[in-house]
């Protein structure tokens, strides 16, 4: 079994004789919108030695062990294994996956791909339960877009905000999602607005510079 810190993920992948889990994870890595975002994952098993190798799709000779391909890639790998097992639903596979900040250290484009993976999983006819603690604006926007485009049923999503009270205690509040993808009053004003606000400031500064 896989430990909470992700140890054992490679062993679970290698033990899957059908290679169904490997195919699922390979699909994630090669699912980019441009060739620069597409990667090929290979697995080599010799006795008890398991090697996972990642290479750009457009430069297969430039490969690196997954552990050396970036902290984000290595960290998201066991999450992908857990999601693939939950999707498969075979005896012994988990039907509940809990992940803490799975987007940590990922490139923003890979964050979006992770968000799309989670939305696709939630849209299955019989989806597993997935609980994600995140600080990622990209994951939230992926969910909102999937709802707006009709790819995700609102009943399949529950968003909660953990709010700290003045006394130091914390409360968990349910955030309702409107049909237009907007969030209700339990969503704190200004949350996750730093990047959009900064982009607006950059745009205004560029306009001011061009008009000067």
Topology record:
Blueprint: H1 9-15, H2 20-29, E1 39-46, E2 49-56, E3 64-65, H3 71-88, E4 96-100, H4 108-122, E5 129-133, H5 137-148, E6 159-164, E7 170-175, H6 194-211
Can you give a write-up of this model?
The chain has 212 residues and is α+β, with helices and mostly antiparallel strands. The chain has six helices and seven strands. The chain has helices at residues 9-15, 20-29, 71-88, 108-122, 137-148, 194-211, and strands at 39-46, 49-56, 64-65, 96-100, 129-133, 159-164, 170-175. The strands form three sheets. A three-stranded antiparallel β-sheet has the order 1-2-3, covered by helices on one side. Strands 4-5 form a two-stranded parallel sheet. Strands 6-7 form a two-stranded antiparallel ribbon. The radius of gyration is 20 Å and the shape is globular. 22% of the residues are buried. The model has no long low-confidence stretch (mean pLDDT 87).
Q: H/E order of the elements?
A: HHEEEHEHEHEEH
Question: How do the strands of the widest beta sheet line up side by side?
Answer: 1-2-3
Largest sheet descriptor: 3 strands, antiparallel
Structural class: alpha+beta
Average pLDDT, rounded to a whole number, is 87
Instruction: Please tally the helical runs, counting DSSP H or I stretches of 4 or more residues.
Output: 6
- Indicate the percent of residues in helices: 25-40%
Number of strands: 7
End-to-end separation in angstroms reads 63 Å
Q: Tell me, what's the shape? A: globular
Strand content: 15-25%
Weakly predicted, low-confidence segments:
none
Radius of gyration: 20 Å
């Amino acid at each position: 079994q896989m430990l909470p810190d992700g140890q054992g993920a490679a062993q679970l992948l290698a033990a899957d004789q059908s290679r169904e889990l490997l195919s699922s994870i390979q699909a994630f890595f090669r699912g980019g919108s441009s060739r620069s975002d597409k990667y090929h994952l290979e697995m080599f098993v010799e006795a008890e030695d398991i090697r996972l190798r990642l290479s750009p799709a457009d430069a297969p000779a430039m490969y690196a062990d997954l552990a050396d391909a970036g902290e984000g890639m290595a960290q998201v790998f066991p999450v992908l294994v857990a999601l693939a097992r939950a999707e498969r639903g075979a005896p012994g596979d988990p039907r509940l996956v809990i992940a803490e900040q799975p987007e940590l250290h990922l490139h923003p484009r890979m964050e979006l791909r992770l968000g799309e993976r989670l939305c696709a999983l939630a849209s299955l006819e019989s989806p597993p339960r997935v609980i994600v603690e995140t600080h990622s604006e990209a994951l939230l926007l992926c969910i909102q877009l999937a709802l707006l485009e009709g790819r995700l049923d609102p009943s399949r999503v529950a968003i909660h905000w953990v709010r700290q009270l003045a006394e130091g205690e914390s409360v968990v509040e349910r955030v309702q999602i409107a049909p237009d993808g907007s969030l209700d009053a339990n969503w704190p004003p200004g949350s996750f607005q730093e990047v959009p606000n900064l982009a607006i400031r950059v745009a205004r500064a560029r306009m001011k510079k061009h008009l000067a």
